[in-house]
Amino acid sequence: MHDLRAIRENPEAFDRGLTRRGLEPLSSTVLDLDQRRRAVQTRLQEMLARRNEAAKDIGLAKKEGRDVQPILDEMAQLKERLPQVEEEERALGAELDTCLASLPNLPADDTPDGPDESANVEIRRWGEPKPMANPKEHYELGEKLGLMDFEAAARMSGARFTVLKGGLARLERALAQFMLDLHTTEHGYTEVAPPLMVRDNALFGTGQLPKFAEDLFRTSSDHYLIPTSEVPLTNLVNDQILDAEALPYRFTALTPCFRAEAGSAGKDTRGMIRQHQFWKVEMVSITAPDQSEAEHERMTRCAETVLQRLGLPYRTIVLCTGDMGFSARKTYDVEVWLPGQNAYREISSCSNCGDFQARRMKARCRMKGDKQTQFVHTLNGSGVAVGRCLIAVLENYQQPDGSILVPEALRPYMGGLERIGMNV
């Protein structure tokens, strides 16, 4: 959500941010709605004040023996008009809130401008892709091993689901445990086991609603399955006033994520790249405003460390304004090398949302001794997507005979197993 006071004080900056996002300037629309609502609020306050005064005037008129009928007539008119003015104020407020809620966060000054992913900027690489002769994609490897079954999943659930068996099911679990242990023991995150279903206010707070309703799975009880644990983790502080000196808070969770993948028809239809259900380890930070930029760099390095420990080559890019998510003001994507696709693919997206989500959630902090509060800053990042990390391990550690070497960092989680072969 956007700060109305900031828009009033500097509408040019607001329009400039929207233009960088590829949107039309809207400050005049927002300020017109704001001005009309404030005018109605003033009129409403004046009417309420007059109603109170008129009640006193009646008593005084009776005491002085004057005719009270004109005052009674005025009060009757006020009684009739007040609901109309209250409804007008409510309607204008709702229209203004709807307008502001539909607008994305404004980009940070150092976010590169551009229309789409072609304008993203690579900032570093780690690791060298290993030369391979005719590398296979993960689904070819998994199916040949007899441990990845798309047909069985389709019979019970339809497209974009997968059944993992044996060594691959264990490898996925090992990856998740490894990530959680790394983030909690070395990176200072607190592990959380959050609800997997939330109400609409939680999704509004993090920006998934109302804009992305079609990408969510809604239950018959008006709950939504979480598209990412960013939603419950960030909402741990909704409607709270935090002690600024206790910040930052750092949370991590392993959860399944559920996405309808609306609009993705034809994209990554083979394999596990784009699924309706997948596991992800999420990182969320809640910071004071002056901490968020440094925390963003730190969070991205935490995600990168996962890939370094697993020996997976990657590159880190900063997203341009046209490729950035709705709630983000700046985003780093970490892309892992997939030899089967001969390409880098996103495995983690780390975003600084500034106070955008905090305003929607009413999450604030107060410095010791201060009366005034300020909105916190929120950050989120994959630490990392478990399914995509499984894909990366399969493709980067594939052997000529079709078996998969287990990265050394995962072997303690695999009972010492060094290789996954046929039906193992």
Strand tally: 17
The spatial strand order of the largest sheet comes to 1-10-11-12-15-9-8-4
Oligomer: single chain
For this structure, what is the CATH class of the largest domain? Alpha Beta
CATH superfamily of the largest domain: Bira Bifunctional Protein, Domain 2
Name the structural class: alpha+beta
Q: Helix coverage percent of residues?
A: 40-55%
Q: How do the helices and strands follow one another from N- to C-terminus?
A: HHHHEHEHEHEEHEHEEEHEEEHEEEHEE
Might you state the CATH topology name of the largest domain?
A: BirA Bifunctional Protein, domain 2
Number of helices: 12
Radius of gyration from the alpha-carbon trace, in angstroms: 27 Å
pLDDT under 50 segments (min length 5)?
A: none
Distance between the termini: 51 Å
Architecture of the largest domain, according to CATH?
2-Layer Sandwich
Q: How many separate structural domains?
A: 2
Give the strand content: 15-25%
**Averaging pLDDT over every residue, what do you get?**
95
- Tertiary shape: elongated
Query: Strand count, sense and closure of the main sheet?
Result: 8 strands, mixed
